[in-house]
Amino acid sequence: MTSTTSRKRRPYATRVPAEERRTQLLDAALRLIVTSGHDAVTMDALAERAGVTKPVIYGQFSGRADLLDALLRREQRAALSQLFALIPAETDMRAGEPARLVTETLDRFLRTVRETPDRWYCIVMPLPDMPSAFHRARDEARDAVLRRAREIAEWGQRRVDGFDPEIAGHTIVTLFEMAARLVLTDPERYRPERFVGSLRAAIGLVTPRVGL
Amino acid sequence: MTSTTSRKRRPYATRVPAEERRTQLLDAALRLIVTSGHDAVTMDALAERAGVTKPVIYGQFSGRADLLDALLRREQRAALSQLFALIPAETDMRAGEPARLVTETLDRFLRTVRETPDRWYCIVMPLPDMPSAFHRARDEARDAVLRRAREIAEWGQRRVDGFDPEIAGHTIVTLFEMAARLVLTDPERYRPERFVGSLRAAIGLVTPRVGL
DNA sequence: GTATATTACTACTCCACGGTAGCATTTGAC
DNA sequence: GTCAAATGCTACCGTGGAGTAGTAATATAC
């Protein structure tokens, strides 16, 4: 009964070309990370989620670390592409208002986050068991974004005394991440316009009633 | 040569009472987490760092999870005690200005962070391999802090149109965490007064030159 | 229809690490 | 000085999970 001759063999997964299989495996890994954290991505769990067996994974990736690294690079590249597409070019900056630019960018950014939640989830959320490599990649991506944010802050500096563009750059990036996290956590409660409205109020696009 | 009769036996660690040993082990674990992340805290690595062997750890804690949980609870309790000691009581709030209160609290908070870096490091920094339990505890602590921050924001609400106290509360907490992270990362470059100065500038404690 | 190349599966190995049984050493009480 | 209690150490076990050798199945070309 339990001999190999009588044990039913698992039906084969549909054969697919290598590139499609890679994408399928990365999508499955992303889902596992987003729902259960990095340690949930065991090779067994991933094989099960993808509907294959472990050797199929090893056919596409040299190991678990290689797969996670490929996933990280894919999501990071896509996220940064999306993000930098939202930030106007420097030449556009000169003609406008920094405060307005930041609030409009925030609005577009949060709508992008809502449209591609898994991607942004693994970019901005604190994820259980997140490996060092993911942390480093986030830090590097943040550094790139910080450079643009600082340029925007320096542009705005001319208007307010006591302004520290480096700190302002960090603040902009951190507030964008915070907003993204809340939008992802509860999209109905935290709609983009709440953040945009608050940012407008905070940086003076509406008139304060009484000077503080 | 390699028989147990000739293998030198490890000299005994100095005997210490249970409570002191627990503290020593938790301190060693905190150091490992801060320097290398949670996965670096294996029972072997911890024994080595503490200068004992594994059964000594099991004499104080039922297992690895128990030890990490004890560490988390110790640091969390101490951090929240420190933090709530910094925030004035509600009765004090009525007599003052919310903006001034927030900036003064930020200043005191960042000085506290500099004085107890390991504690705050494991409270605010993104740590490699951080388990779900640590994430949940941070979320719960943040929720508690958010309630106070929201009260402060509601206090400030009366002064500015378009104000969303919930979003403002999240913003205050997130900016405090951001400042703490930068202070911990590079204390010479990110001195508390840079954040305090920027916060003052941002919320209008200095006069804007030109309305935006 | 058959053969072969390509892709997938079963059953297994290996090891890092959590955890422990049994023994050794030290310290304090008498 | 001796003895026993308390604390610490060595050597080992069990297992989850990464990874693979050998075999099976399928799909396409002829």
UniProtKB/TrEMBL annotation, chains A, B:
Q: According to its UniProt record, what is one Pfam family this protein matches?
A: TetR_N
PROSITE patterns named among the record's database cross-references? HTH_TETR_2
Q: Which domain of life is it from?
A: Bacteria
Q: What is the protein's species of origin?
A: Herbihabitans rhizosphaerae
Keyword line: DNA-binding
Query: Which GO-annotated molecular functions does the record name?
Result: DNA-binding transcription factor activity; transcription cis-regulatory region binding
- According to the entry, DNA is bound by residues in 42-61
Record's protein name:
TetR family transcriptional regulator
Which residue intervals define the domain HTH tetR-type in the entry? 19-79
